[in-house]
Amino acid sequence: MPQNKRSNGFRWLRLALAAGTLTGAAAAYRFALKYRERVGLPHRHPVEDSPANYGLAFETVEIPAGDHSLAGWFVPAEPQAAPSKRRRAAAKAPAEAPAQVAGSAAPSADSSAPAQATPAAEPRPAIVVVHGWESNRGRTFAHVRYLHAAGFHCLVFDARGHGDNPPETLPVNVPEFAEDTAAAARWLAARPEVSAVGVIGHSMGGAGAIVAASREPEIRAVVSLSAPADLVWMTRRTFEMAELHVPDLIATPLAWFTAAVLLIPRRHSVEEASAVVAAGRYRGPLLLIHGAQDRGVPVEHLGLIELAALESRDAEDAPVESLILPNFGHRWLYEDAGCRRKIAEFLARSLGGPVAPETAGDRAAACVVERPADPVYGFGAQATKTPPSDLPIYEN
Asked: What is the mean pLDDT of the chain?
């Protein structure tokens, strides 16, 4: 073939490849924008529960978090003298009106009115409870009940764009959950009755808790439940859940590009949304818990986070612990008494009290808690009120 014909052939090939690349990039960008539009903003659900429904004293609080504030409840630990006072009151009460105990579900004459929030006699550890995507502080309040029974102060709040907070106009994801969690931890640490702060988060709140702890020194221990390891892997998983048959060759690059476009409006990077990256930077006590039957965030995500945390730690760093519950899915892991025991023991050991780890574990395990009366099954955009028919009641 003459030289000029060969050159023309290569030129046309380069042009065709360039055109194909531009067309593919445009298609990927349109796809990413549609994805962001569909999953970027949470659907807010009203908070329907209240600490008063369980006989718990609390304060309704507004937590400053930069240019916004977060609705929350602060539930103080009971004073040391409270058990004996309660027993004396119970002895005087009629037999048909037993005294309430922390963690028991009891009716309230006015569930909207907070009981007197009396602080504990001396400073003790406090726990920030962080809900997951499209949840709220009421639907995650079960954690407060057993942690309060174990002797901790507790703070549960609505992340931005969730619960009783106003709607957002920009996408919300792991970085925003992390920023709100850090703000809640700082607010809690400033209270005089608080000696140390730990965080427990579920799902996106679990990933946000790890990211927050990697930046905020006030967070002294983290419990992360059902957390996605990385936004890119989670985005690719949503392709599968939506039954989008994306070829393996382009699935990961498309997931990375889609995740990046999702984060652009708030100028966050994909790395800033990664629990794996954050776990590699965080050196404090870390407990990872996951359900083996989790269909939304597969249990392999726990292994990825755990490996990143372990590989980056030295012998003098705090331990990394994990627990896999074989019969549970994405939600309601707190229904397992062993899970409650593990969490309370871990936090008591990591934060120095308020009681011995074994005592905290016993109290948490004995405090029976259940999922909300109107549970949600599934994950994200595929969430539904209809339970699955092919797995036990633990699947969610």
From this structure: 83
Check whether 244 has a pLDDT greater than 80. Answer: no
Which of these, 153, 162, 266, lies nearest to 205 by C-alpha position?
162
Domain 41-230+274-382 sits in CATH 3.40.50.300: no
C-alpha span between 396 and 234 (Å, rounded): 17
CB 187 within 8 A of CB 63: yes
Go through 102-121 and write b for each residue having 16 or more CB atoms within 10 A of its CB, e for each that does not: bbbeeebeeeeebeebebbe
Helix/strand/coil for 139: coil
* CA distance linking residue 396 with residue 392, whole number of Å: 9
The three-point CA angle 39-42-45 to 5° equals: 145
Identify the CA nearest to 229 among candidates 258, 254, 204, 200: 204
pLDDT at 10 over 70: no
d(CA 49, CA 332): 16
Instruction: Tokens 């892991």: give the residue.
Output: 333
Distances (CA, A) of 127 to 5, 33, 218, 310: 73, 37, 11, 24
Question: Domains of the chain: which residue ranges?
Answer: 41-230+274-382
Residue type, 68: H
What pLDDT digit, counting tens, does each position of 13-33 carry? Answer: 454 444 444 455 666 667 676
Bond prior to 265 in cis (omega within 30° of 0): no
CB atoms inside a 10 Å sphere around CB 138: 22
Burial class (CB in 10 A: 0-12, 13-18, 19+), 98: exposed
Structure tokens at 294: 């989790």
**65 DSSP β-pair partners:** 68
List the 59-65 sheet strands across, edge first. Answer: 59-65, 68-75, 153-157, 124-130, 194-202, 219-225, 286-291, 320-325
